[in-house]
# Entry
Amino acid sequence: MPADATALPNYETLLVTLDARVLTVRLNRPQRLNAVVEALYQELLDVLRIAQQSPQVRAVVLTGEGRAFCVGADMKAHGSAKRTLFQRRAYLQLGNDVCEAITKLSKPVVAAVNGYALGAGAEMAVSCDFIVMADEAQIGFPETSIGTCVGGGVSKLLPQLVGLTQARRLLYLGDKLHGPEAARIGLALASYPQAQLMAEAQTLAERLAKQAPVSMAMLKPLVNRSAHTSMESQLQQELDAVFTCSTTDDWQEGVDAFAERRAPNFFGQ
# Structure
């Protein structure tokens, strides 16, 4: 991405825009309900790399073009493909790589689930920091009904989000949740009427984009790893993070803004 961020890549399977330091990534295979193929995964990895490297990007919104967020693997493309076992595993690895890249991105990611989010689509959504859903959208993990298994770290992340019993229900039975129920059990942050969804997602992402970038980069891995970190280790990592933040210009800006009773203007330095 150039320094002025005026020229974003033209992708085959994605629509990408930058506004108010929020990078919006739309999965753009609406004719296939945004089902995933190798090219989509590869382009997602590329745009996430851009998001990581660009100081002009402070937050990301991931959503789908058309009637769906993402209905999972493109079964038609899979059925017609002649893959070796090695190629099959490489494709599956791409899915894991995308979810890992979302989780490890130093900037917050909001999934705006505008329609069906199933299988690989639900995996990508769960990898995001926040899920907001349209009321009529549905999210689910149908893997056991088609003889496969979840990926993307869902078996770890989902129990942390909704608790073990609800995770078992969703994963073992493949139940789909509409937006309001997903919000009720803690899978989604909120559910909105379809017409409001993208505005609400943008508002949330802009709020996140106004926070101190170094603070966010320190905090996100602390939160994501906390379930399996001892208290002693967590305290030490927090101490290191606080100290790192205190060495930045943004820390001084935060102190000055508080004293001057104004909103801070962070630069990520």
Notes: Residues 88 and 247 are 47 Å apart (CA to CA).
